[in-house]
């Protein structure tokens, strides 16, 4: 088990809940009412700041229902929260783009996160590659 130190923006934000069994991703909620017109961008406050356990980062993605419910796209596609993003003012935010007029209310669950271990320390060794080309971008066809 790992412990995450967490700070909430205020008492209104519902506390995060780890639900074992169904999905270990943890839902995150909007901490402010946000009204967006089609084509507008906003960094939506998620109401939490955390000190992640040593050796971890967090990844944020939308819930699968987020686009259907709110008409918003996460503009960075996947948010990466560094272990060093841990100060009292390091609030988590979700960058969103609205494709239609929409309203997000306080405590609406708009995205989810999980912890990921850091990758190993790596170095780059410059060379000429000698393996076989695999090919990509649909090289195996569509059927
Ligand atoms: O969806 C996100 C992505 C990032 N962050 C915070 C945590 C992260 O540690 C910090 C910086 O993110 P990143 O390194 O991806 O952004 P950058 O554009 O490279 O900014 P910086 O120059 O601050 O590193 O912003 C969020 O709150 N939400």
From TrEMBL:
GO terms for biological process: dUMP biosynthetic process; dUTP catabolic process. This is dUTP diphosphatase. One of its GO terms (molecular function) is dUTP diphosphatase activity. It catalyses: dUTP + H2O = dUMP + diphosphate + H(+). Belongs to the dUTPase family. The keyword Protein biosynthesis does not apply. Transmembrane segments: none annotated. It comes from Wansuia hejianensis. It is an enzyme of class 3 (hydrolase). Keywords: Hydrolase, Nucleotide metabolism. Residues 27-141 form the dUTPase-like domain. InterPro entries: dUTPase (IPR008181), dUTPase-like (IPR029054), dUTPase-like_sf (IPR036157), dUTPase_trimeric (IPR033704). CDD domains: trimeric_dUTPase.
């Amino acid at each position: 088990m790992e412990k995450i130190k967490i700070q909430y923006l205020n008492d209104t934000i519902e506390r995060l809940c780890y639900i074992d069994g169904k999905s270990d991703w943890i839902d995150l909620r909007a901490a402010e009412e946000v009204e967006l017109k089609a084509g507008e961008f906003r960094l939506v406050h998620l109401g939490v700041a955390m000190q992640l356990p040593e050796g971890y980062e967090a990844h944020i993605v939308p819930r699968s229902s987020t686009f259907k419910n709110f008409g918003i796209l996460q503009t960075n596609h996947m948010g990466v929260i560094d272990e060093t993003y841990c100060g009292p003012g390091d609030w988590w935010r979700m960058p969103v783009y609205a494709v239609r007029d929409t309203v997000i209310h306080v405590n609406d669950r708009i995205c989810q996160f999980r912890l990921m271990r850091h990758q190993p320390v790596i170095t780059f060794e410059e060379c000429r590659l000698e393996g076989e080309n695999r090919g990509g971008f649909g090289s195996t066809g569509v059927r």
